[in-house]
Design brief:
190 residues; mainly alpha; 6 helices; globular
Length: 190
């Protein structure tokens, strides 16, 4: 059924979506384990941190995301947000202090909360009205694929080195950033 609506631009966006969810899930799945393994945090601290992450994500989504969707070219904003997300997860790789590591990851979660609506809007805008439901269904499939791959790969590579899932997150966001720039260039010339 994908052949009915698939274009090169949509294929780029679906790959971008898969990479975003893969990278996010790799980081998210490993974050709690990392806090316990490396910093010896208890479950109580993990719960408080996750609650704070939810609050940070909500604030980023309700302020920055809404502003970007209403006042900017989403294609360009997506590039900036992907870059900042990649930068924040990359910064976590060099943070030795628990506080600095947690702050870098919280900032990453905030930018992730913005990426999702921007990416979904790009995909929705690229879809034709008659195939929009199929396109959004395909988007959900790429989300699931990315999350399954992210959890699986993170689980495999975490045991090799506890920083590997965070490296994977940085790499996938770098690849997503490149695809977003390619998409922008294609959409300007269409």
């Amino acid at each position: 059924d994908g052949r009915l609506f698939m274009t090169k631009s949509l294929a780029l966006l679906f790959t971008l979506s898969t990479l975003i969810f893969l990278g996010y899930t790799a980081v998210d799945q490993s974050f709690n384990y990392y806090l316990k393994d490396v910093f010896q945090f208890t479950s109580r601290y993990n719960g408080m941190i996750k609650g704070t992450v939810g609050l940070v994500s909500l604030i980023f989504n309700m302020t920055i995301c809404i502003y970007l969707m209403k006042k900017t070219d989403i294609r360009k904003s997506n590039i900036v947000i992907l870059f900042l997300g990649m930068l924040s997860v990359s910064a976590s790789l060099v943070m030795k202090s628990p506080l600095h590591f947690i702050i870098a990851i919280m900032i990453f979660y905030g930018f992730y909360a913005i990426m999702i609506p921007l990416t979904q809007t790009l995909i929705t805008n690229q879809a034709e009205k008659k195939t929009r439901n199929q396109v959004l269904g395909f988007y959900q499939a790429t989300k699931s694929l990315g999350m399954i791959l992210g959890a699986y790969i993170a689980g495999m590579i975490y045991s090799i080195n506890v920083m590997n899932p965070f490296i994977l997150g940085a790499v996938t966001f770098a690849l997503a950033l490149i695809l977003s720039m390619i998409y922008l260039r294609r959409s300007i010339h269409e």
